[in-house]
Amino acid sequence: MAKDDKKNAWKEFFWNPRTREFCGRTASSWGLILLFYLAFYIFLAGLFALTMYVMLQTLDDYRPTYQDRLSTPGMMIRPKGDQLEIAYTVEHTETWERYVQALNNFLSPYNGTLQAQKNYECKPDKYFIQEDSGNLKNFPKRSCQFNRTILENCSGIADNYYGYKDGKPCIIIKFNRVIGLLPAEEGQPLYVTCGAKADDTDKLGELEYYPPNGTFDLMYYPYYGKKAQVNYSQPLVAVKFLNITKNEDVNVECKINANNIPEGSERDKFAGRISFKLRINSKD
Length: 284
Hints:
25% helix; five-stranded mixed β-sheet; 2 domains; 11 strands; Immunoglobulin-like; four-stranded antiparallel β-sheet; glycoprotein; alpha+beta
């Protein structure tokens, strides 16, 4: 009997024919509570939509409202190898072919014909500032040409192997893009210097920089963003290692030098500098 009473109680909870209640509520009670939640969620959705609308009005499609970046932007090399380590054997072509191919792919947008079609011949040693006229946006922004021939012996034109075949490899260095950055003061260009780390000083040998002195010309700055400056060609610096010690690991560090960019600290190894390992094996 107790079991039947419990079963009947459950049945009456779901549907009570005497009071016409479903799950303990009448139809009018269910209607009121559903109406309340419908109005409540419509209010929340409207509040969210209004908040998003107000926030979107503060955004610029071409320039971020706020930039949370390091005071010293980072650098990167090409080819970057595995874990920033470039190692190969001069006599074994297959060990350095991938580096040559990586450089070919990276420098292909810097071919003279493409640069002449898309970009503008700027005046060197001067910022290429393109201001807006009040509310009238000066878009798209023009970009300055960077022809790979500027890299001379590391351009891949005179030497299709970028020195890897002769044990005198080229490394291409690029400075990270930062919107609106003016990286130097009083017309002094920023430049790259490379040196050996720790006990590898005697192993590094002589270096050549392209362009001369490893400079990033001021005409490539400021950068206005990917959407505003669609054809922007990032300036490059090439470093050629002329007589690095063979068959040994050489730890190299390259850093940016500018009179208004602070040097990176040991806490951030990629702030304004890049470290990599270079090993050239040879039977000679």
